[in-house]
Amino acid sequence: MRLSFFWAFALLSGIAVAHPGHDHSHEIAQRRAFMANSKRTDLSHCVSKLKARGIESRNIARRSAMISSKQQKRDLDRVLDTNHNETNLRYTPTTAETTVFSSNTGCALTPESTQGPYYITGEHVRRNLIEDQQGVNLYMDLQVIDMNTCDPVPDVWLEVWSCNATGVYSGVVAAANGDGTDDLANIDTTWLRGIQRTNADGVVQFDTLFPGHYTDRATHMHVLIHHNATELHNQTLGSGNSTRVMHVGQAFFDQSLISAVEATYPYTENTQVLTENADDSILSTEASLGADPVMEYAYIGGSVMDGIFAWLSFGINVTKNYEVPASGSYWEDGGRPEDNSEWTVTPPETGSSNSSSAASSGI
User: Fold this and answer.
1) CB-based contacts of 118: which residues, under 8 Å, 6+ apart?
2) C-alpha 26 chain-centroid distance
3) Model confidence over 9-28: pLDDT tens digits?
4) Can you say whether the dihedral through the CA atoms of 172, 173, 176, 180 is positive or negative?
5) Which phi and psi (to 5°) does residue 251 adopt?
6) For residue 236, what are the β-bridge partners?
7) Cβ of 268: how many Cβ atoms within 10 Å?
8) H or E element, residue 282
9) Where are the domains of the chain?
10) What is the pTM of this model?
11) Where does the secretion signal sit in this chain (predicted)?
12) Distance, CA of 162 to CA of 160 (rounded, Å)
């Protein structure tokens, strides 16, 4: 009897990393230098303080309630009795919730120099990111902790985005995107992108889909934490062509979970080459340096098709404040590519010529 774990959450920097065919040697060297100078690589030093403040017990109650709500009358005993992975953690249906849902792991603090491809400003503040997309449901519980004080980080805007089952990012028309430059209407799409503000315990929850893959990169998801952002009247964050952030990175997943998802439709329709974790130069470097970028997960039902619940507490340096350029922005009348972005091409007749900026127009 095993509970599914291993949603690897590595905050690996990435605009250079994420482009298909890019030389990753500079990124690897940067990663090694960072790890060599890092005094803390996880949240183990925060465990006692989080427990003393009652944050640990609230984490357990919240995570238990979330997975229960998503099971929709499914039998939790059957979930825990299903062999979901190879972690050799032999939980039984009677295992205490304090064991199953506690924050017994924490993400390593990792370099945050670049953000990976296809960051779009002006996205929606929302929990459900799926829209019309198909795939395996992924319910995420993410908690942000100050690495220096071990306190939760409340009232910050956490943004996530990922490609769909066939390796395409919304909001972008680019040669390196999964559908190339064939679908010009993709510039106006917003699926699998969203933002939420952390609560008093530093927590956000998203309902999204498990990411697909694209050539030269292992399956991953992007995470960004804004610096002093403001929600606009139409539930978006407007940042123009760049964003001030205190954290940005990427999330990775256990290979056995990826394989299970990739065997299902519509992931089977993805014609791009699948790069496994072992062949991803950035992720393999992370492991070789001794970091433990692992997040826990559990199947909602008896198979991956029933959905996945994943959770993690991870640490950031709240003193960081730097600029992240965007590939485009979402406006009142649709998407607009950034002229200086190497990741986008400008589709004809985007309809954005008369728009004011997202911030000034309330978008």
Assistant:
1) 161, 169, 171, 172, 174, 177, 327, 328, 343
2) 23
3) 334 433 333 444 445 555 55
4) positive
5) -110, 140
6) 124
7) 11
8) helix 281-288
9) 15-361
10) 0.76
11) 1-18
12) 7
Question: What is the 3-state composition of the chain as percent helix, strand, coil, each rounded to the nearest 5?
Answer: 25, 25, 55
Round the CA-based radius of gyration of the chain to a whole number and report it.
Answer: 20
3-state SS assignment for residue 144: strand
**One-letter identity of residue 120:** I
Residue recorded with tokens 């760049």: 242
DSSP symbol at 255 = H
Give counts: helices (H), strands (E), the chain.
9, 13
* Both structure tokens of 23: 């030389």
Token pair recorded at residue 31: 């990663």
What order of strands is seen across the sheet that includes strand 242-252? 193-197, 157-161, 220-226, 242-252, 322-325
pLDDT at 310: 84
Token pair of 181 as six digits: 């430059």
Q: Which backbone phi and psi does 17 adopt, to 5 degrees?
A: -65, -40
State the alpha helices, DSSP H only, in 110-248. Answer: none
In a structure prediction context, what are the per-residue pLDDT tens digits for the chain, which is 363 residues long?
A: 233 333 333 344 333 334 444 455 555 555 555 555 555 556 777 777 777 777 777 887 787 778 777 765 344 344 334 333 433 344 445 555 555 556 555 554 444 434 566 899 989 999 999 999 999 999 999 999 898 898 999 999 999 999 999 999 999 988 888 877 788 899 999 999 999 999 999 999 999 999 999 988 888 888 899 988 888 888 998 665 567 888 887 778 888 999 999 999 999 999 999 999 878 776 666 556 555 555 678 898 889 999 999 887 878 888 888 888 888 888 877 788 876 555 444 444 443 333 323 322 222
Tell me, rounded to whole angstroms, the distance of Cα 155 from its chain centroid: 18
Torsion sign over Cα 134, 118, 185, 352: positive
Q: Which of 2, 43, 7 is nearest to 296 (CA)?
A: 7
Superfamily, domain 15-361: Aromatic compound dioxygenase (2.60.130.10)
Give bridge partners of residue 331 from the DSSP assignment.
334
Which residues 6+ apart lie within 8 Å of 206 measured at CB?
127, 128, 129, 138, 139, 140, 142, 160, 194, 196
